[in-house]
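chain below, 359 aa
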Amino acid sequence: MSTLPRRGKVPRFSQSQRLAIRQHTVTLMASHFADGFKVNMVGSTRRYREFCLQMGEPAFPVTFDKVAGFITEKIMRGNKLTSGVTDSRNIKSWCIHHGVDYMPDAEDRRQFKTFVSGASAATDMSVKRPPPMTYRRLRRIFGVLDVTDPDDHQFWCCLVLSHSAMLRGGGACGRKILVKHLKFTRDGWLTVTLVKRKHNRHGPPETVPVPPQSEPMFNTVGLLKDYLRRSGLRDQPWAPVFPQLRPSGRARRALRPRWSYDSWLTAYKRMSDKAGVKFSTPQGTRAGGFTDLVEGGMPELIAARVGGWAPPGGNHPRYLRQTRRGKGAMLHKARSRQIARSRGREAPAVPSRRKRQRP
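prediction:
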């Protein structure tokens, strides 16, 4: 129902009301960016400013010549074009966030599209992604761990949980997952509640189901049950799942998280290098869990939905990093099944041996 008067002039907002609307608009726009993306915006803008200082030009207003020169200098230093384009997008987001013009001239925007197209044709666009932490690589890391040591056992539990639930890099660090977020069902499953996800920062929590496994070293449900019992965390629902431990394996009284993302990255790199798994990153557990599910027979879209991607527009295909043997096995299985179905359809109907009853 309209609140405007039926007669007379439409009342105008006061100066304070207009100011409050603008401020709230800025607040809503700022909420669009996640904290991690804000860090990327600031970092890209800082590098762009340093480049402009070296060129002896003011950083603002942002023009085509400055951004194109910034990207070209990165390419000349050996960086990928995609890195420069990502920086340009971060700079644009920073300008929008702070009310600064970004290439206000339409001709600059057209030239920038032509520049990116030409650079794509003239430079190497291949992206080398880190190897996925699949079951095969997890076995190699398990071989260099001493699971009787409480710290190594805790590291293995965190690694297997990240793989089974397809968590993002550092998804189990800090206080992101508490003990109360782990629910063990009667039929032997585990549900992990994720309060905040990249695609669902302000919505309700989501749960990821984790089934039991027959092999003990990969049985996330049994490993976490045993770990919570040993560490004395079963009766402390507000404690982080992976706090600092005493030499006996019990959680320290302060219940401080053992890993931040940086410390988890350091421990992950150390164990990976020790096991001979080179160039791996914590995000590899997410790619490894997704790859293992798809190679195990789960449809790709369903596995993507479980892992927190938003199909069909999500970027889950780039996380499917199969080996040639894995691709060949899936192709052989799919084609064999289809050939069997085609034989069943094309086979002539076999007449029944039962005699028809006479009327």
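DSSP finds twelve helices and three strands in the chain. Strands lie at 182-184, 190-194, 206-210.
thats it, cya
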